[in-house]
Amino acid sequence: MVDATVTPxxxxxxxxxxxxxxxxxxxxxASEPTPEAERVAGxxxxxxxxxxxxxxxxxxxxxPAAGDGRWPDALYDAFEHADAAExxxxxxxxxxxxxxxxxxxxxxxxxxxxxxxxxxxxxGTDVPxxxxxxxxxxxxxxxKTGEGSGGYLTEDFDHDLHWQVLHGDETHFEGVDFxxxxxxxxxxxxxxxxxxxxxxxxxxxxQADERANYDEGVPMGGGLLWSSQHWRESLRRVRDLxxxxxxxxxxxxxxxxxxxxxxxxx
Length: 266
Description:
CATH superfamily: Ribonuclease Z/Hydroxyacylglutathione hydrolase-like
CATH class: Alpha Beta
CATH topology: Metallo-beta-lactamase, Chain A
Largest sheet: 6 strands, mixed
Number of strands: 11
């Protein structure tokens, strides 16, 4: 356990078809052959872990120009982030008492547009940016070719950054573990923090967009999974870790989890 605090950073809200977040949320049946699709809210948030050794920022959120032509039209149409500009990283950090200059290191859970859009703030600095090897390779492959996966923009991560490449589970600070959880993407990284006066918190990012993904084991829609098999293996791993440590689990875009975090930990 370490004498650390975790503070949520509110980066706004995306709106998307529920079928992206929860597989087969809307299904046509004989009695209802043309069901109405539902667009739902997905919370976008970062974390500041204030630790005796470092001030760590987990993820950098959407770029403020997401809706002003930075994101491709089709991508923005599917994953609208209308308040990205007003919830930019410096503003959101300032609301919880931090500035970009306070950040000693960055951990990117992965490099999708709603998670890596603030990396430009650390370009040309010596701030370490931790990312998994598989994620860095896949992001460039996807953004630079017609293959790979959607959701990556070279402009988000192709900067002069002080990359620190992860190759598996790693511990760089006391009481803080970086967990490799492939599935949503090949290099997804979760965060385990063992906090004095609280216990263990597991921030699993887009391993689970919503609580149903974790609690009920319902995957995200196929378009949001790089590998269903890896996703299920990572889910089993996180559940086992939760059982062994009696941890609280926080999902990547669940509004109720952000509300549980409001005010910070412990």
